[in-house]
Structures are given as structure tokens and as C-alpha cells.
Amino acid sequence: MFLWSLLPVSLSLVSLIGTWVTYGLAYSYDHVCSLNNWAPGNLCGNNTTMACCEVPTISSSGTHLPENSLFTATINAGSFLFMVFCIFHHAHILERNSVHSMLSRFTLVFGGVAAVGAFVAGNCNPAYLMLAHYLGAAVSFLCICFYSLLLTVLTGKCVLTRMEWFLYPARVMSTVVQIIVTIGYAILFVQEEYKYKHLAAVFEWILSANLELFELSFAVEFCFFSSSMLSTLLGKKDEEKPILLA
Length: 246
Known about the structure:
By secondary structure, the chain is mainly alpha-helical. The chain has nine helices and no strands. It has one domain (2-234). Helix 1 packs antiparallel against helix 3 (67-96), helix 3 runs antiparallel to helix 4 (101-123) and helix 4 runs antiparallel to helix 5. Mean pLDDT is 85; it is low at 236-246.
């Protein structure tokens, strides 16, 4: 049913609009430097002042008030929608291609852990809970790579829309980008020089946009989702098979 496709669309739009509006607010208050400025003269160092700005990562964009509230709300909404997306997609696989249920369960686990990691990162301000924030973000980034990879494998194995001839290569490209850029981001993020940190910030925004496009592509599958699959999700269809523990 067409309305189910609004789930991946909403997930992508909430993440896209929320993060960029947060960045816009942070930039307008001079809390983060411009993504276009690779050599800011007012970069915050060890001795911060009211006039300095930070590296424009997604996390630093949501560190200070008032944008911190919007950042937390965006991450919470995105984490919830992503978890629902993972569960519903798993139900779709169980209903249409149950032979791949084990692979789908592994995929669901990685997706669920990624959602929890993002939730922790979004609710632990790096200015006060740096370790928890970066640990949650690291877990989320890593699990997203595995989740994207396994979803792409499932796209190649399962016929859900008969448009896999287009979706599969597109998702292969998106997954390759996600993995390569994540590795590059991890290497650059720990560097001391500003130009590398700024490049890491650019990579983080690329990862966010790439993931949003990846999620958006599942609007095609969700056009073929039906309310009857929710009974599979709740374990009430026919033999009442459970979705998560079957």
C-alpha cells in the first residue's frame, strides 16, 4: 500500500531537515565554523572565547543551546523511526521470502544496535558526556555499515518489488560509499590538524546524506507492504509465527 512508503520517506526527511536546520542555527550563532571555510580565523582552541567557532561536525552542531534541543529531538525521532523501519522490513522479508529469515534477523540486530547507539549519542551532549556520546556514535556508524551491507545482500536475494534490477546496483554503490567514507572519517577524525578535522566533518555530512538516500530507496519496497504483514509482526497470522524469535 502506498501509504507505507511514507515511513522511509519520513525517516529520511526527519534526518535531513533536522540535522541541516540544527547546523544552520549553530552557524548563525557562531557555534560552528562554515563548511565552506577551510581556514577559519576564529577557531576554538584550548582557550575558548565567545567569538570562536568549532569544527562543523553534526555532533558539534548540536552541542550548544538553543540548537541542542532540536538536535536531540531529531536524533530521538530518527532513532525511533529507524527502529520501526528495521522491524517492518524484517516483517516484509518473513512474509515474502522466509527462506532468508536468518539473514534478516542478523540485519535486524545490527539495525537495532545502530538505532540505540544513535539514541545514546543524541542524548549525551559531547560537551559534558564526551565518552558516552562518541561511543554511541562509533557503535552507530559501525553497525550502519553492516546493516547497509546486509540489506543490500537481501536486496540481491529477495524479490519484493521486481525492481531489484535497479535497486540492487544502486544500493551496492551506496553501501560501498558508506563503508569507504566511514573508514576515511574514522582516520581523519583523530587527527590534530584542522584541515583533517574539517575534512572529517565533510565526510560525516556525506555519510548522513548517503544513508538518507539509501533509506529513501526503500520507499519502493514499502509500496508493496501491506497491513496483513503487521499480523506477522505481531505473531497472529495463521500459525501465529513470532517475528523476532521464529
